[in-house]
Amino acid sequence: MSAVTTDPRGPSTVRRASGIRRRTAEHMVRSLATSPHAAMAVEVRFDAVEAARQASAARPAVPAYTAWAVTRALADFPLVNSSWEDGSIRVFEHVNLGVAVDMSHEGLVVPVIRGAHELDVEGLHERITEVTGRARSRALGVADMAGGTFTLSSLGRSGTLFTIPVINQPQAAILSMDTIARRPVVADGTRVEVGLVAVLTMSFDHRVFDGAYAAAFLARVRERLENADGKVAAGG
């Protein structure tokens, strides 16, 4: 016969976590125990991205432009697209982009877009839309979530300022994009104007590279986004 105890915190209900929630929890704990996490954030103006969107008949979603900027920047900073393996660094030649998808607050799944570096903005938009839809309809297989080399997480219109994401093992880094909002910004160092601004935050494995390398990578991503236009984005 088990003893009956009174919880000093008051009445409560114990709910069994879903399978997705348990797998997400296990992955997060394992990631933090595996990699020495460090994080860095930059503010990015998305005015040029919005202008490019308006000029495109396809109207790609903003995460497609961020994915485009990231995949191009990874070519110049290959350590970000790598994994730590037993005292060595495995650097990947292709960018297999993981896209974090929220499963109605039950947990996360990360389908992978293989060869993302070969896609333009419209191609990335199509693939992100496809894998996100398949994820939410629970039509993904194990193979769809294998082989990622870098992960992008977007919180869209959630209203958040910045998020420090947990690395998707065994990758070296993950980038989170939070909500784009209209904010006052200083232009040309002399005048204040209203711009479309969002924070990009990258968590990275400090064994693989250091803060200066992370800062340079983020600066390159920001440069791509703030100078995006329809021609550049579509041409890759």
TrEMBL record:
<dbReference type="InterPro" id="IPR023213">
    <property type="entry name" value="CAT-like_dom_sf"/>
</dbReference>
<feature type="domain" description="2-oxoacid dehydrogenase acyltransferase catalytic">
    <location>
        <begin position="13"/>
        <end position="228"/>
    </location>
</feature>
<keyword id="KW-0012">Acyltransferase</keyword>
<dbReference type="Pfam" id="PF00198">
    <property type="entry name" value="2-oxoacid_dh"/>
</dbReference>
<protein>
    <submittedName>
        <fullName>2-oxo acid dehydrogenase subunit E2</fullName>
    </submittedName>
</protein>
<dbReference type="InterPro" id="IPR050743">
    <property type="entry name" value="2-oxoacid_DH_E2_comp"/>
</dbReference>
<keyword id="KW-0808">Transferase</keyword>
<dbReference type="InterPro" id="IPR001078">
    <property type="entry name" value="2-oxoacid_DH_actylTfrase"/>
</dbReference>
